Amino acid sequence: MANTPPPLMDGPLRDQAIARVHEIAEALARPYEEWTLSQRPGSTGLRSVSLALGRGGPAVFYAWLARNGLYDRAHELAARYIQESMDLFGEQSMDASLLCGFPSVAWTVEHVLRLLDQFPADDPNEPVDEAIVAALADDSYVPAYDLIDGLAGLGVYALERYPHSRHALPMMEGILRRLEFTACKQSIGVAWPSGQMTRTAQGKDVAADETYFNLGLSHGIPGVIGCLARFQRVPEVRDRAAQLLGGAVEWFQEQRLPPEPDAQGAYPDFVAHDVESEPARLAWCYGDPGVALALFAAARARTDSRLEAFALDVAHSGARRPLASSGVVDAGLCHGSAGLAHIFHRLYRASGDEVCRQASVQWLTHLLERVEDRPNIAGMTTFCFERERDGEYIEDPAWLTGAAGAGLVLVSALSEPNDKLPTWDRPLLADLDG
Question: Cα separations (Å) of 280 from 4, 104, 134, 274, 277?
Fold first, then answer.
């Protein structure tokens, strides 16, 4: 009889997490328009209906509370937020990005209504699917390749629609066609360039005509790797995805920084010719944890034990990094303690790796340390990187950067050891168990 793995949290830490989930749920029950940042920018849907920063985040949060029986009003509030999102959707002028554009609203509708067993027979996302398929067939449409803004993100949306929508496979095929066409053959493997550097990066002056390769999960090649790894599980596109994935992984492994005794990380933000690379910060969006997620997913898709060991070694590089040099200054998913806690939790649950388990507990403990001396929600605060309020700490209800996402991390951490983890993290490419 197999031993049951220990729970991620027990005793006082678990009690704190349960109490904090309830506190977040109470806080986010207020009308969304009362949150200061929900007003800006009003016409784009970014702060009003998107998954990353709008009503979509609380809708997903309450839907999973309802599924897990963690809050009495959860079903009511999930339904309210998703209905508001659908009502406001037509009034917004949104781009085609997964986390902040119109696909983010459609993904949230698909995810939440199916979770609540309320998806209507008259599919509300059919027009969105048709628009994406048409755009992918139009050669004048030139999207980015990445997760947040481009093709990899549309791939995540297509996967959410598969197999329910007849458009899911045409979306995947269109995405693969674009990725195949834009893949640049390298001396080893293939990669997707991110265009030209037009500003200083990591304190290095980079020539404006210098092509670079982005290595962050959010805006770089790991997002493509994570998307292709999931496409490889779809029989109809498996072979095409596998061919691209193999070349991308081969190239990406070669970009690892040389091991040094005092190294602060395995991967930089980017690589470019004649630019000295430095370790990225510790985060989901950039750095070793996000990279480890993508490579681990690829390892499982390819049944490659060596690549899995490589991915875990990258994760260990992140796990060893102390708080003081991590770059973590807040609680969010994107670049805060919640995101790190969840990544290491996912890696632990997928692999049984004890280093990842300990790292997850450490970051959960840090996440649950209350902050009261600056704006916060339930003792959790967000450092704002938006241009209008850059450098301020704010009350942030959002999924990607604020309380809704942090709450979902706690919901996942409270799951039983042998239970399948909630799948709210698919847009982060953090779902490692299929």
Answer: 36, 27, 37, 18, 9
| DSSP, res 2 | P
**Cβ atoms of residues 294 and 226 within 8 Å:** yes
Tell the residue number behind the tokens 């698909």, with chain if given.
Answer: 110
Q: How far apart are CA 403 and CA 27, in angstroms?
A: 9
Q: How far apart are CA 420 and CA 349, in angstroms?
A: 9
**CA pseudo-torsion sign 236, 290, 359, 63:** negative
Give me the mean pLDDT over the 372-390 stretch: 82
Length of the chain: 434
Mean pLDDT of 67-79: 96
Alpha-carbon Rg for the chain in angstroms: 20
- Tell me phi and psi for residue 383, to 5 degrees: -90, 120
Q: What is the pLDDT of residues 251-275, one digit of tens each?
A: 999 999 998 777 789 999 999 988 8
In this prediction, residue 276 has a pLDDT band, given cuts at 50, 70 and 90, of confident
Question: For residues 380, 219, 52 and 280, what is the CA-based torsion angle, rounded to 10 degrees?
Answer: 0
Model confidence over 76-128: pLDDT tens digits? Answer: 999 999 999 999 988 888 999 999 999 999 999 999 999 999 999 999 999 99
Q: How far apart are the first and last CA of the chain?
A: 24
Return phi, psi of residue 213, to 5°.
-120, 120
What is the band of 197 on the pLDDT scale with cuts at 50, 70, 90? Answer: very low
Secondary structure of residue 350 in the 3-state scheme: helix
The answer for residues whose C-beta is within 8 angstroms of residue 349's C-beta and 6 or more apart is: 421, 432, 433
Both structure tokens of 205: 């002056």
Give 315-336 as a DSSP string: HHHHHT--GGGT---S--TTTS
Handedness of CA 370, 371, 373, 376 (dihedral sign): negative
Residue in this structure with the two tokens 């002028």, named with its chain if needed: 93
- Token pair 């704002």 is at which residue? 384
Spatial distance between the Cα atoms of 194 and 142, rounded to a whole number of angstroms: 13
* The two structure tokens encoding residue 394: 């704010």
Q: Which residue do the tokens 């969010």 mark? A: 332
Residues in contact with 27: Cβ distance below 8 Å, sequence separation at least 6, in sequence order: 377, 378, 397, 403
